[in-house]
Structure formats: structure tokens, C-alpha cells
Write a structure and sequence with these properties.
heterodimer, A: about 50% strand, B: mainly beta, about 45% strand
Chain lengths: ~120, ~110
Amino acid sequence: GAVVSQHPSWVICKSGTSVKIECRSLDFQATTMFWYRQFPKQSLMLMATSNEGSKATYEQGVEKDKFLINHASLTLSTLTVTSAHPEDSSFYICSARGASGNHEQYFGPGTRLTVT
Amino acid sequence: DAKTTQPPSMDCAEGRAANLPCNHSTISGNEYVYWYRQIHSQGPQYIIHGLKNNETNEMASLIITEDRKSSTLILPHATLRDTAVYYCIVTPDYKLSFGAGTTVTVRA
């Protein structure tokens, strides 16, 4: 199957700093990418949907100015957590979908963010 | 407002078939049924999807009832590596809404 990578796999940062997480589709062009967040012992929650070259669509309750999403190319999307706080500590997972008509979403391995 | 209902957990024996039920009684005509699974601390993995016909691939089979109000994911020969949380999701598009899923534990 198609491969999606995330970088970094884990990161520790101080409160108030910003952190950028990259999501790459390695062997296909991702027209749409999704960002999820997962707190311990909870399910995945969709944060936003991004289409290449256009602004991301955020789910209700997700602050777009805090979670900046850029999908500048068909193989790369980035999520920047700005002014991170301990409550932003979570497992961030991206997924990518290829050409129209392809039902599968391919998920990255996730990024564990810890804000101290 | 959950669209699907799954048992919270189930055990199955290694080498036996695992049958995972999912209730989606309010499914609309244009909604697909998707199954994904998540092994601990990893990203979810696509398993299979269907609209109204039964489907089979190299990983599993999906049986959808005629009224489409429920479905069953079948793992034909469960292995220890199939231990994971299994999510049944219904959606008309590509936005996936994950519920609590079923925690499947395969025992030797």
C-alpha cells in the first residue's frame, strides 16, 4: 500500500514555543490530507482537512490560528502548533488520500508531542 | 451523535475467524461502511470498505446486511498481530469520524 511518513516521530518542547510537524506522501500524490489528534485512551478526532493549494477546513472547536496547516504541494502538508501549552500534548496523526475515486486513506505513523 | 455502535471489546483465539459486528441503523443510501484498525501507538490502517455488496480482500471480508443497517468484519484466521482497536465508520465522503471502536485481543 501507499506510504505516508511523519516527522518528527516525537518532540518535546517548552510551553510557549511553536512546533512544526510534517506529513509526506512518499509514493503517491495526495490531493487531500487530514490532520487528527488523539489523547491517551481516546479515539482519533479530526482537526482539519486540507486540499493542495487551498486553505484548510477546520472542524468545529479547532482554533485555526493556533493550528496552522499548510498543504503547499501534492506530497507535503505541515501542521504548526503555535504557542504550545501542556494541554496541546497529544498524538498527532495525518492521513492522505490520492486521486478522486480512491476510497482508501493512508495514515502516517503519528507524532507524539509533549509540551513541558 | 454516534453513527455506529460496536462492542467495546472482544477476545478471539489465534487461528480462528474473528467476527466483528457493527450496527449502523441510521445509515443513508449514499454512505459507505469503512473499517480501519489501529495497533497501539501507530496510525490507523485501512482494512476494507463497502456500499451494499459484500466485499473481500487479502485482509478481511465485509458482510453488509441487505437493509444495510449492520455489518460484520471477518478476519478469517486471526493472528497475534491482529490485536488492535477496530473502527467501523460510515460516511458519504472521505471525512472519517472515529468512535470508540472494538478492542480486539487475539490470544494464543
